Amino acid sequence: MALIDRMMDNGCQPDGVTYGPILNRLCKSGNTALAMDLLRKMEHRKIKLDVVTYSMVIDSLCKDESLEDSLSLFNEMETKGIKGNVITYNSLIGGFCNAGRWDDGAQLLRDMIERKITPNVVTFNTLIDSFVKEGRLSEAQELYNEMITRDIEPNTITYSSLIYGLCMENRLDEANQMLDLMAKLVDEGMRLFRKMSPRGLVADTVTYSTLIQGFCQSGKLNEAKELFQEMVSIGVQPTVVTYGILLDGLCDNGELEMALDILEKMHKCKIDPGICIYSIIIHGMCNASKPPSQRSEARCQDVHGNDFRIV
């Protein structure tokens, strides 16, 4: 901010390209008030604003749970002739759903469709997850069917949410069918992954972590462990998120000793596990002491509960 002021003092007029990274950084670091202040300065200085600029601040407001302010800024943007896009709407839908206002989120989806703005998998996943948590599985399934109708491919997050909802209603046969669909999706991801290396493409931590998560969630723990070992052996460094995904899968499947061994290796490598990792281990210890029927119920919940998203 001070650098921009110095630029102007020296007769240099910053443009949208100059402001963009600063605004993005303020939003990502949670400095929403400063981001709003910068946005107003940009307007005052006649900097041309676009949907990307407004969407950054709207998303930050939603994460701060300032939903009325985010809607107000959205309406202001539209009044100026700048139309929201799928990213703008996803931020708003996510904000309302996180605040428990699922019906408002669903109304925003209807508004998108009426205005010919195509929703994506993130849009549907946010709403499906929210309706499942609210115990409104039938609405979640309607949204899933809408995804299929619109040729939007569900992903492991979609299936995990629906499996959780079906398990909570004791509809285990349907949950198993959904699990099979998720397993096929992960297998297809693995097939594409194996095509990367011959084409000169190098898999990174995010690629490996995503596949490990898919294998864990679809019940293929051995494949997840093998992929983790492959990742380490070729020098791709796992992150805390990668470790969390694997440890969650191990604890969920009763392999507590291996989970504890990996935790010890993290300490030896001076990797700070953080509260999420410790919570997984504690949960695994508690779950290990339960009778089999309660462990099955906890396993069903864990498909949905400890959700490490790869972004």
From TrEMBL:
One Pfam family here: PPR_1
PROSITE patterns to which the protein is assigned, alphabetical: PPR
InterPro entries recorded: PPR/CCM1_RNA-binding (IPR051222), PPR_rpt (IPR002885), TPR-like_helical_dom_sf (IPR011990)
PPR repeats: from-to residues: 15-49, 50-84, 85-119, 120-154, 155-185, 204-238, 239-273
Keywords from the named record: Repeat
Protein family (similarity comment): Belongs to the PPR family. P subfamily.
PANTHER family: PENTATRICOPEPTIDE REPEAT DOMAIN CONTAINING PROTEIN-RELATED, TETRATRICOPEPTIDE REPEAT (TPR)-LIKE SUPERFAMILY PROTEIN-RELATED
Protein name: BnaC08g40920D protein
Species, as recorded: Brassica napus (Rape)
Gene name tied to this protein: BnaC08g40920D
